[in-house]
Amino acid sequence: MTAQAVETGDLATVIGLEVHVQLETDTKIFCGCSTDVGDDEPNTHTCPVCLGLPGALPVVNEGAVEAAVKVGKAIDATIPEETNFHRKNYYYPDLPKNFQITQYDAPVCQDGELEFSVEGERRSVSVRRAHLEEDPGSLQHKGGSIDTADYTLVDYNRAGTPLMEIVTEPDFRSPDEVRSFLAKLTEVLEYLGIFDATRDGSLRVDANLSIVEGEEVAADGSIGEEALESANRTEVKNISSHKGAEKALAYEETRQRNAIQRGRVVEQETRHWDESKGVTLSMRSKEEEKDYRYFREADLPPLKVSDWKERLSIPELPDARRERFREEYGLDEESADKLTSTKEVADFFEDVAERFDPGLAATWVADELLGELNYRDMAITDVDDRFDEIERLVELVAEDEITTKNARETVLREMLDDGDAPTEIVDREDLGKTSGDEVRQAVEEAIEENPDAVADYHDGDDGAINFLVGQVMGKTGGSADPGDVNQSLREELDG
Ligand SMILES: Nc1ncnc2c1ncn2[C@@H]1O[C@H](COP(=O)(O)OP(=O)(O)OP(=O)(O)O)[C@@H](O)[C@H]1O
Ligand SMILES: [Mg+2]
Ligand SMILES: [Mg+2]
C-alpha cells in the first residue's frame, strides 16, 4: 500500500474485505441444478443435494474450480498442489445441512495481489486467500426487515450457486479506496468471463473496519501484526454494491472514531448495513473460528490442481489492454481508460477501429456512445444487439455522408431514444449532406442577399464571414459542412 501521512496522535482507519462473488457456471457447484434461476418460483431449482437431504452426495463442478483458478491467475496467486473442501458448521435456516461446504486450510488461491487506482494514484492490495464455497439459500423477511419481520421464508434456488470468497489483507486505509478496489475487481472478473455484475446478489461484501493509533502506522503505511490483531474490529454484513460498501464503511469509520474520542471501547461484533436508513446496526457478537468446528468434507476427495494454472488460459486483462490501446491506437489516458472499462466496450472499440480510423472510433465509442448511454443510465450491454447499426452510423460520418453535428445530435440520440436505424433517421430527417452544387448555390444567394456583410468582409472585418456562413447553413437546413461553406465563401469573395 502506498504511504499515507498519519500524524502522531491521529487515528488511522484500517479496512479488510471478504468479497463473495458468484461464479458464472451453468449448474450449481455440487449438483446438476441450473443456476439460471431468474424470477422463477422459489424452490424450483433444487434437488436432494442442494436441499441437504440425508444421504445425498455432492459432486464437484469442474467449471467452478476452473473459474477459481482463472481468478488465481488474474491476481497472481499461488495455486496449491492439491485443494480440498471442509464443512463449516453453523445453524441458520438458509443452510439446510447445517454446514456449508467451503475451503479451509488448502484454499484454491493464496497470496494474490490486485492493483487499482484511486484518483489517478496506483495502489495495490494483497489478497490473503480466495476460496470456493456454496452459496446458502436466500431469506425473504416478510412484513419488515431482518430485525422487525413478522416471519421469514426460505428460497433454496440460490443454495449451491458457486461462490468465491476473496479475503484481502487489511490494507485499505479509507472507504473510497474500497470502492475503487471493488470496481477494479469486478472489471477483472468480467474480463475473465466468469462473473455477471448485473445479476442480483452476485457480489456481497463483508467489510471489516478498525481504528488504530496513528503511531502504529509505519512510514510506508504498513501496520504491525500485533496492532492489527489487538484492534477491536467490526464486520459489516449485507453490503451488495460498491457504493454501499463505501457508505457503510464511512458510517462505521465515523461511529468508531466518535466512540474512541469519547473514551469508549469499540465492541468486536458483527453489524448489519441497513441500506435504506444508511446506518450499521449491531447484530451479534463475532463468532470465533472454533465455533464453526471445521472438519474435512469426507464426501469430496481432494483435487489435484497444480497444473491447472498452466492448462487454463485467461484473456488479456484490463491493465494490459489499456496499455496496448495507448500504444497501438495512440489513445490518451482518459480514452484508454474509458474504452477498457468493460470487455464489451473494448471489443466493440477494436471492431470499429479496425474498420475506420482509430481516432474516429475512439471519439465515437468513448465520447459519443458512452456519453449518450451514460446520460440515459444505460450500459453497453443494453445496445450490444445494435452494434451493426452503430458501426453504420460511424460509417456515414467516415464517408462524409452526414455531418458530425447531425450524427451526434440527431441520429445517435434518436437511435437510442426511438430504436430506429441510422439510415431511417437520416432519410426521415433529411440529413443527407447537401451536395456541392446546392452549397455553391446557397453561397451565391447569401452573397447576393447580404451586400453589407460582403462589404464588411472586403474592409477586413473577418467576423463578417461567420455571419455569411450562418446564412448558408440556414439555407441548407444545417446539413452543409461549416468548414466547406467557409472555404467556398472565401473562394467566391476573394476570387
Ligand atoms: N485490524 C483489522 N481491521 C480491519 N480489518 C481487519 C483487521 N484485521 C483483520 N482484518 C480483516 O478481517 C478479515 C478476516 O476475514 P476471515 O474470513 O479470515 O475471518 P473471519 O471474518 O473471522 O471469518 P468469517 O469468514 O467467518 O467471517 C480480513 O478481510 C482481514 O483483512
Ligand atoms: Mg470470511
Ligand atoms: Mg468474516
TrEMBL record:
Residues 475-495 are annotated as: Disordered. One of its GO terms (molecular function) is glutaminyl-tRNA synthase (glutamine-hydrolyzing) activity. Keywords: ATP-binding, Ligase, Nucleotide-binding, Protein biosynthesis, Transferase. One of its GO terms (biological process) is glutaminyl-tRNAGln biosynthesis via transamidation. Its EC number is 6.3.5.-. InterPro entries: Asn/Gln-tRNA_amidoTrfase_suB/E, Asn/Gln-tRNA_Trfase_suB/E_cat, Asn/Gln_amidotransferase, Asn/Gln_tRNA_amidoTrase-B-like, GatB, GatB_C_1, GatB_Yqey_C_2, Gln-tRNA_amidoTrfase_suB_CS. Residues 347-493 form the Asn/Gln amidotransferase domain. It comes from the Archaea. SMART domains: GatB_Yqey. It catalyses: L-glutamyl-tRNA(Gln) + L-glutamine + ATP + H2O = L-glutaminyl-tRNA(Gln) + L-glutamate + ADP + phosphate + H(+); L-aspartyl-tRNA(Asn) + L-glutamine + ATP + H2O = L-asparaginyl-tRNA(Asn) + L-glutamate + ADP + phosphate + 2 H(+). It holds the Pfam family GatB_N. Heterotrimer of A, B and C subunits. HAMAP family: GatB. Allows the formation of correctly charged Asn-tRNA(Asn) or Gln-tRNA(Gln) through the transamidation of misacylated Asp-tRNA(Asn) or Glu-tRNA(Gln) in organisms which lack either or both of asparaginyl-tRNA or glutaminyl-tRNA synthetases. The reaction takes place in the presence of glutamine and ATP through an activated phospho-Asp-tRNA(Asn) or phospho-Glu-tRNA(Gln). Belongs to the GatB/GatE family. GatB subfamily. PANTHER family: GLUTAMYL-TRNA GLN AMIDOTRANSFERASE SUBUNIT B MITOCHONDRIAL AND PROKARYOTIC PET112-RELATED, GLUTAMYL-TRNA(GLN) AMIDOTRANSFERASE SUBUNIT B, MITOCHONDRIAL. This is Aspartyl/glutamyl-tRNA(Asn/Gln) amidotransferase subunit B. It comes from Halosimplex pelagicum.
